[in-house]
Design brief:
Glutathione S-transferase Yfyf (Class Pi), Chain A, domain 2, 4-stranded antiparallel sheet, 10 helices, 12 strands
Protein backbone atom coordinates (compact mmCIF):
# COMPACT_ATOMS: atom_id res chain seq x y z
CA UNK A 1 0.00 0.00 0.00
CA UNK A 2 1.21 3.51 -0.76
CA UNK A 3 3.83 2.36 -3.28
CA UNK A 4 4.33 4.40 -6.43
CA UNK A 5 5.38 1.49 -8.58
CA UNK A 6 4.86 -2.24 -8.92
CA UNK A 7 6.00 -5.07 -11.16
CA UNK A 8 4.26 -8.24 -12.29
CA UNK A 9 6.76 -10.82 -13.52
CA UNK A 10 6.26 -14.23 -15.09
CA UNK A 11 8.60 -16.98 -16.19
CA UNK A 12 7.52 -19.96 -18.24
CA UNK A 13 7.94 -21.83 -21.49
CA UNK A 14 6.23 -21.88 -24.85
CA UNK A 15 6.83 -25.44 -25.94
CA UNK A 16 10.57 -26.04 -25.50
CA UNK A 17 11.45 -22.31 -25.45
CA UNK A 18 11.70 -20.60 -22.04
CA UNK A 19 10.68 -16.96 -21.60
CA UNK A 20 10.47 -14.21 -19.00
CA UNK A 21 8.14 -11.26 -19.11
CA UNK A 22 7.22 -8.40 -16.83
CA UNK A 23 4.80 -5.49 -16.73
CA UNK A 24 5.82 -2.38 -14.81
CA UNK A 25 3.18 -0.13 -13.26
CA UNK A 26 4.00 3.42 -12.15
CA UNK A 27 1.84 6.17 -10.68
CA UNK A 28 1.04 8.93 -13.21
CA UNK A 29 3.08 7.19 -15.92
CA UNK A 30 2.19 4.72 -18.67
CA UNK A 31 2.80 1.07 -17.94
CA UNK A 32 5.28 -0.81 -20.06
CA UNK A 33 6.21 -4.42 -20.63
CA UNK A 34 9.34 -6.41 -21.34
CA UNK A 35 9.75 -9.80 -22.97
CA UNK A 36 13.06 -11.60 -22.41
CA UNK A 37 14.54 -8.29 -21.31
CA UNK A 38 13.44 -6.34 -24.40
CA UNK A 39 10.92 -3.53 -23.98
CA UNK A 40 7.77 -4.04 -26.05
CA UNK A 41 6.02 -1.28 -28.05
CA UNK A 42 3.09 -1.53 -25.62
CA UNK A 43 1.79 -3.92 -22.94
CA UNK A 44 -0.95 -4.88 -25.40
CA UNK A 45 1.77 -6.57 -27.48
CA UNK A 46 1.69 -9.38 -24.94
CA UNK A 47 -1.79 -10.30 -26.19
CA UNK A 48 -0.23 -11.33 -29.51
CA UNK A 49 2.66 -13.15 -27.86
CA UNK A 50 0.77 -15.24 -25.30
CA UNK A 51 -2.55 -16.90 -25.93
CA UNK A 52 -4.44 -16.53 -22.68
CA UNK A 53 -8.18 -17.01 -22.25
CA UNK A 54 -10.00 -15.75 -19.17
CA UNK A 55 -13.29 -16.47 -17.46
CA UNK A 56 -14.38 -14.02 -14.76
CA UNK A 57 -17.88 -13.46 -13.31
CA UNK A 58 -18.20 -10.15 -15.18
CA UNK A 59 -17.79 -12.02 -18.49
CA UNK A 60 -21.47 -12.91 -18.20
CA UNK A 61 -21.94 -9.63 -20.05
CA UNK A 62 -20.91 -11.51 -23.21
CA UNK A 63 -24.31 -13.24 -23.04
CA UNK A 64 -26.50 -10.87 -21.06
CA UNK A 65 -25.04 -7.53 -22.21
CA UNK A 66 -25.59 -5.54 -25.39
CA UNK A 67 -24.53 -6.49 -28.94
CA UNK A 68 -21.33 -4.40 -28.79
CA UNK A 69 -19.90 -6.70 -26.10
CA UNK A 70 -20.54 -9.81 -28.18
CA UNK A 71 -19.10 -8.19 -31.31
CA UNK A 72 -15.93 -7.25 -29.40
CA UNK A 73 -15.63 -10.78 -28.00
CA UNK A 74 -15.88 -12.34 -31.45
CA UNK A 75 -13.41 -9.83 -32.93
CA UNK A 76 -10.83 -10.68 -30.24
CA UNK A 77 -11.36 -14.38 -30.85
CA UNK A 78 -10.98 -13.80 -34.59
CA UNK A 79 -7.63 -12.09 -34.07
CA UNK A 80 -6.38 -15.10 -32.08
CA UNK A 81 -7.77 -17.76 -34.43
CA UNK A 82 -6.99 -15.98 -37.70
CA UNK A 83 -3.96 -13.68 -37.17
CA UNK A 84 -3.99 -12.75 -40.84
CA UNK A 85 -7.42 -11.19 -40.35
CA UNK A 86 -6.60 -9.50 -37.04
CA UNK A 87 -7.01 -6.01 -38.53
CA UNK A 88 -10.45 -6.62 -40.05
CA UNK A 89 -12.33 -4.87 -37.22
CA UNK A 90 -9.97 -1.88 -37.00
CA UNK A 91 -9.90 -1.38 -40.78
CA UNK A 92 -13.69 -1.36 -40.88
CA UNK A 93 -13.85 1.04 -37.93
CA UNK A 94 -11.43 3.43 -39.67
CA UNK A 95 -13.48 3.41 -42.91
CA UNK A 96 -16.69 3.88 -40.94
CA UNK A 97 -15.25 6.86 -39.06
CA UNK A 98 -14.21 8.50 -42.34
CA UNK A 99 -17.64 7.97 -43.88
CA UNK A 100 -19.38 9.35 -40.79
CA UNK A 101 -17.14 12.43 -40.87
CA UNK A 102 -17.92 12.90 -44.57
CA UNK A 103 -21.64 12.56 -43.82
CA UNK A 104 -21.45 15.34 -41.24
CA UNK A 105 -19.50 17.60 -43.60
CA UNK A 106 -22.00 17.00 -46.41
CA UNK A 107 -24.96 17.62 -44.08
CA UNK A 108 -23.38 20.91 -42.98
CA UNK A 109 -22.83 21.96 -46.61
CA UNK A 110 -19.06 21.96 -46.18
CA UNK A 111 -18.55 19.21 -48.77
CA UNK A 112 -20.42 17.71 -51.69
CA UNK A 113 -22.16 14.37 -51.17
CA UNK A 114 -19.96 12.96 -53.92
CA UNK A 115 -17.08 13.04 -51.43
CA UNK A 116 -18.84 10.16 -49.70
CA UNK A 117 -18.36 7.74 -52.59
CA UNK A 118 -14.84 6.48 -51.76
CA UNK A 119 -15.78 5.93 -48.12
CA UNK A 120 -19.05 4.22 -49.02
CA UNK A 121 -17.04 1.78 -51.12
CA UNK A 122 -14.52 1.30 -48.31
CA UNK A 123 -17.24 0.64 -45.73
CA UNK A 124 -18.86 -1.93 -48.04
CA UNK A 125 -15.52 -3.65 -48.78
CA UNK A 126 -14.21 -3.75 -45.22
CA UNK A 127 -17.69 -4.53 -43.89
CA UNK A 128 -17.90 -7.61 -46.09
CA UNK A 129 -14.45 -8.75 -44.93
CA UNK A 130 -15.37 -8.23 -41.27
CA UNK A 131 -18.64 -10.15 -41.58
CA UNK A 132 -16.83 -13.02 -43.33
CA UNK A 133 -14.20 -13.05 -40.56
CA UNK A 134 -16.81 -13.10 -37.80
CA UNK A 135 -18.74 -15.90 -39.50
CA UNK A 136 -15.55 -17.93 -39.94
CA UNK A 137 -14.77 -17.41 -36.26
CA UNK A 138 -18.20 -18.61 -35.13
CA UNK A 139 -17.95 -21.59 -37.48
CA UNK A 140 -14.62 -22.52 -35.86
CA UNK A 141 -16.07 -22.19 -32.34
CA UNK A 142 -19.56 -23.64 -32.84
CA UNK A 143 -18.87 -27.41 -32.78
CA UNK A 144 -16.72 -27.30 -29.63
CA UNK A 145 -19.12 -24.80 -28.05
CA UNK A 146 -22.11 -27.09 -28.58
CA UNK A 147 -20.24 -30.15 -27.30
CA UNK A 148 -18.78 -28.40 -24.26
CA UNK A 149 -22.09 -26.77 -23.32
CA UNK A 150 -23.83 -30.16 -23.61
CA UNK A 151 -21.32 -31.75 -21.24
CA UNK A 152 -21.84 -28.88 -18.80
CA UNK A 153 -25.60 -29.42 -18.81
CA UNK A 154 -26.66 -26.91 -21.47
CA UNK A 155 -28.02 -28.94 -24.42
CA UNK A 156 -28.53 -27.83 -28.02
CA UNK A 157 -26.31 -24.75 -27.66
CA UNK A 158 -25.55 -22.72 -30.78
CA UNK A 159 -23.88 -19.57 -32.10
CA UNK A 160 -25.43 -17.55 -34.91
CA UNK A 161 -24.31 -14.35 -36.61
CA UNK A 162 -27.18 -11.89 -37.04
CA UNK A 163 -26.48 -9.48 -39.89
CA UNK A 164 -25.57 -9.25 -43.56
CA UNK A 165 -22.60 -7.52 -45.20
CA UNK A 166 -23.45 -3.99 -46.38
CA UNK A 167 -23.35 -3.38 -50.12
CA UNK A 168 -22.69 -0.09 -51.86
CA UNK A 169 -26.28 -0.15 -53.17
CA UNK A 170 -27.68 -0.69 -49.67
CA UNK A 171 -25.62 2.19 -48.29
CA UNK A 172 -26.59 4.52 -51.13
CA UNK A 173 -30.26 3.59 -50.71
CA UNK A 174 -30.29 4.94 -47.17
CA UNK A 175 -28.07 7.97 -47.86
CA UNK A 176 -30.78 10.51 -46.95
CA UNK A 177 -31.32 8.90 -43.54
CA UNK A 178 -27.56 8.74 -42.90
CA UNK A 179 -27.14 12.41 -43.80
CA UNK A 180 -29.93 13.33 -41.41
CA UNK A 181 -28.44 11.37 -38.49
CA UNK A 182 -24.81 12.11 -39.35
CA UNK A 183 -23.76 8.49 -39.11
CA UNK A 184 -23.95 5.23 -41.01
CA UNK A 185 -27.01 3.23 -40.01
CA UNK A 186 -26.11 -0.02 -41.71
CA UNK A 187 -23.24 -2.44 -41.30
CA UNK A 188 -21.43 -4.83 -38.96
CA UNK A 189 -21.03 -2.16 -36.27
CA UNK A 190 -24.75 -2.78 -35.63
CA UNK A 191 -24.81 -6.57 -35.93
CA UNK A 192 -25.24 -9.11 -33.14
CA UNK A 193 -24.27 -12.67 -32.23
CA UNK A 194 -27.07 -14.88 -30.94
CA UNK A 195 -25.95 -17.28 -28.20
CA UNK A 196 -28.76 -19.80 -27.83
CA UNK A 197 -29.67 -23.12 -26.26
CA UNK A 198 -32.64 -25.25 -27.22
CA UNK A 199 -33.71 -22.54 -29.65
CA UNK A 200 -33.83 -19.91 -26.89
CA UNK A 201 -31.79 -16.70 -27.07
CA UNK A 202 -29.98 -16.89 -23.74
CA UNK A 203 -29.72 -13.12 -23.45
CA UNK A 204 -33.48 -12.77 -23.15
CA UNK A 205 -34.61 -16.24 -22.06
CA UNK A 206 -31.69 -17.80 -20.21
CA UNK A 207 -31.21 -18.10 -16.48
CA UNK A 208 -28.04 -16.69 -14.93
CA UNK A 209 -26.78 -20.25 -14.51
CA UNK A 210 -27.32 -20.96 -18.20
CA UNK A 211 -25.64 -17.69 -19.16
CA UNK A 212 -22.67 -18.54 -16.95
CA UNK A 213 -22.39 -22.01 -18.48
CA UNK A 214 -22.53 -20.54 -21.99
CA UNK A 215 -19.65 -18.15 -21.30
CA UNK A 216 -17.58 -20.94 -19.77
CA UNK A 217 -18.33 -23.15 -22.80
CA UNK A 218 -17.24 -20.31 -25.11
CA UNK A 219 -13.89 -19.96 -23.35
CA UNK A 220 -13.22 -23.70 -23.42
CA UNK A 221 -14.36 -23.95 -27.05
CA UNK A 222 -11.92 -21.25 -28.08
CA UNK A 223 -9.12 -23.00 -26.19
CA UNK A 224 -9.80 -26.17 -28.16
CA UNK A 225 -10.07 -24.32 -31.47
CA UNK A 226 -6.78 -22.52 -30.83
CA UNK A 227 -4.99 -25.75 -30.02
CA UNK A 228 -6.37 -27.41 -33.15
CA UNK A 229 -5.36 -24.51 -35.39
CA UNK A 230 -1.96 -23.69 -33.90
CA UNK A 231 -0.83 -26.93 -32.30
CA UNK A 232 -0.23 -25.01 -29.06
CA UNK A 233 -2.65 -24.97 -26.14
CA UNK A 234 -3.42 -21.57 -24.59
CA UNK A 235 -3.30 -20.79 -20.89
CA UNK A 236 -6.84 -20.75 -19.45
CA UNK A 237 -7.61 -18.68 -16.36
CA UNK A 238 -10.90 -19.49 -14.60
CA UNK A 239 -11.74 -17.06 -11.81
CA UNK A 240 -14.54 -18.04 -9.40
CA UNK A 241 -15.97 -20.43 -11.95
CA UNK A 242 -17.03 -23.12 -9.46
CA UNK A 243 -19.27 -21.25 -7.05
CA UNK A 244 -22.46 -21.76 -9.09
CA UNK A 245 -21.68 -25.19 -10.53
CA UNK A 246 -23.19 -28.24 -8.89
CA UNK A 247 -21.20 -31.45 -8.31
CA UNK A 248 -22.04 -33.11 -11.68
CA UNK A 249 -21.05 -29.97 -13.59
CA UNK A 250 -17.83 -29.62 -11.59
CA UNK A 251 -17.02 -33.22 -12.48
CA UNK A 252 -17.77 -32.55 -16.17
CA UNK A 253 -15.54 -29.48 -16.03
CA UNK A 254 -12.68 -31.50 -14.53
CA UNK A 255 -12.94 -34.01 -17.39
CA UNK A 256 -12.92 -31.21 -19.98
CA UNK A 257 -9.89 -29.56 -18.38
CA UNK A 258 -7.97 -32.83 -18.10
CA UNK A 259 -8.06 -33.17 -21.88
CA UNK A 260 -7.11 -29.59 -22.69
CA UNK A 261 -4.96 -26.60 -21.86
CA UNK A 262 -2.98 -25.67 -18.81
CA UNK A 263 -5.55 -24.14 -16.50
CA UNK A 264 -5.42 -21.91 -13.43
CA UNK A 265 -8.57 -21.99 -11.27
CA UNK A 266 -9.36 -19.70 -8.36
CA UNK A 267 -11.87 -20.79 -5.72
CA UNK A 268 -12.89 -19.73 -2.23
CA UNK A 269 -12.26 -23.25 -0.93
CA UNK A 270 -10.10 -26.15 -2.07
CA UNK A 271 -13.15 -28.38 -1.50
CA UNK A 272 -14.76 -26.82 -4.57
CA UNK A 273 -11.96 -27.84 -6.94
CA UNK A 274 -13.27 -30.36 -9.47
CA UNK A 275 -10.14 -32.57 -9.33
CA UNK A 276 -6.86 -32.92 -7.50
CA UNK A 277 -4.76 -29.99 -8.71
CA UNK A 278 -1.20 -30.36 -9.96
CA UNK A 279 -0.31 -27.43 -7.70
CA UNK A 280 -2.37 -25.83 -4.95
CA UNK A 281 -1.61 -22.33 -3.69
CA UNK A 282 -3.43 -20.88 -0.69
CA UNK A 283 -3.76 -17.10 -0.35
CA UNK A 284 -4.45 -15.96 3.23
CA UNK A 285 -3.58 -12.95 5.35
CA UNK A 286 -1.70 -11.32 2.50
CA UNK A 287 0.60 -14.30 1.95
CA UNK A 288 0.80 -17.15 -0.56
CA UNK A 289 1.80 -20.65 0.49
CA UNK A 290 1.76 -24.15 -0.91
CA UNK A 291 -1.42 -25.99 0.00
Amino acid sequence: MGSERAKVALAGARGPVPFTTEVLLRVHEPRFARLDGERLPSPESLRHTFRTLVFTPDRLAVVKGGPAIRRAYVDRAAARLFPGRATAASEYAAALAQRNAALRRAAAGIADSGALDPWTGAVARHGRELVETRRATLAALAPAFAETAERLGLPAASLEYAGEPPSVKDLERRLAADLERGSTGLGPHLHDVVIAAGGRDLRAFGSQGEQRTAVLALVLAEARALEERTGSAPLVLLDDVLSELDAPRRKALSELLAAGSQTVITATSADLLPAEPTQLLVVADGAVREG
